Amino acid sequence: MKNDITVIIPVYNGEKYVEETIVSVLNQDFSGELQILIVDDSSTDSSREIVERVAKKSNAIKIISRKKNLGLMASNQDALKSVCSEYVLFLGQDDLLPKDHVRLLIEDFSNDIVAVWCNSVIIDSKGNSKNTALSDWKQIIKSPFNNQLICLNNFISSPGMICKTSVMKDCGGWNSNYRNFGEWSLWIRMLSLGKFRYSLKSKALYRRHEDNLSSFVDMDELPRDVSNFYEHCKIEAEKLHCNNFLNRFAVRLLKSLLGR
Length: 260
Prior knowledge:
With 260 residues, the protein is of the alpha/beta class. Helix content is 35%, strand content 22%.
């Protein structure tokens, strides 16, 4: 094992928080090699200048600057193609990592584990802690049934999640057909190649504010592009994880028990 990681930070008009996000990665106590790859998706604010200024202070930071805005999934996929480290972590431009986060989550990997994910502490625009995003005990109970539950919805939280780079690449990486949505589809495909582990060792800091791409979760009706993406994921999950009678039965049973 090389014991190295690349933290990818896609940026678009993130001048408010991106420096704090980068610093939280630079402050990691991980003893292995850590590289930060920042993709600026043609920001129109001062994000690029901020990133370039911070990058001058550390050789660990590399920057990809786009001349045209192509969206989050295209940024993620382009960055993934250039990653050579054993592990990869995609971090939102406004999210933060505790100092020991990378070290603790990498400790939870084993040969059959392809991704380790965790809970998040929700913070507001000023960095004040609000509450945790998930119930830890519910996620632990769900863990043995990841492959079945992923057919119902995307219950896996991405902030702070660390993946094996080779597996992410082997399953095709991010689907850039959907401009800003891709996590559920990626987890569906990665789960066909290995197991996910839920870690209690650390919690990422997930910032909720009015400019979040995921603000649609509070809407009464999903935007059409989100609805289309969800439909794509359900079809994809059915093909990969509900391809025999026992799996289909397990999904129906879990759906009945969970009431959804």
